[in-house]
Amino acid sequence: MSQSSLPIAKAESPDMEVVMIKCLKDGCQDSFPSLNDVKKHQRITHQAQVSCTIFGTKDTVKLTRQSNDMSTCPTEGCNHQTKDPVNMQNHVKRCNHETVQAPRVMPVPPPDDATLVPIGNQVIVIPEYTSLAYNSYAQVLLCQKCNQGIIPNEVESHMARAHHEKG
């Protein structure tokens, strides 16, 4: 598209004239303030396919935009999706199938009626501080009032915040 053949839309205001460039691709009537903005819009909105170089090879693959307007990375195990063809080209070029990790599954929180396991001999009660105990297995201080692990330098703030006690 040459500068002289650009579809121009003029928006006039009392102070100045604003020149906008129309897309017109596939009948699109969207207008933009610069040619770069038009090209970006056309790439993201109207480009149906993108050619990508596969990581570590010279092989290319042509990806077609899906019904949700997204392209999906072809690398096994990768779930990356994007509307931007340039983003997809850069991603596929760097997406190493050996380092793609399976998506993490968030652990299910315990139910409200979770059973508290007896402390046994791995927890040492601290006689000088009746609200604290030490779990020798996890190597962490425990608040005996709420069973929360506490970093040693945060004991005072925990007691004040959680139990309204001042040291």
Automatic annotation (TrEMBL):
Domain of life of the organism encoding this protein? Eukaryota
Q: Which PROSITE patterns match?
A: ZINC_FINGER_C2H2_1, ZINC_FINGER_C2H2_2
KW Zinc-finger (keyword) present: yes
Q: Name one GO molecular function term.
A: zinc ion binding
Gene source species: Puccinia triticina (isolate 1-1 / race 1 (BBBD)) (Brown leaf rust fungus)
Recorded hits in InterPro entries, A to Z, give:
Znf_C2H2_type
Q: Where does the record place the C2H2-type domain?
A: 21-51
Instruction: Provide the protein name.
Output: C2H2-type domain-containing protein
Question: Which key words tag this protein in UniProt?
Answer: Metal-binding, Zinc, Zinc-finger
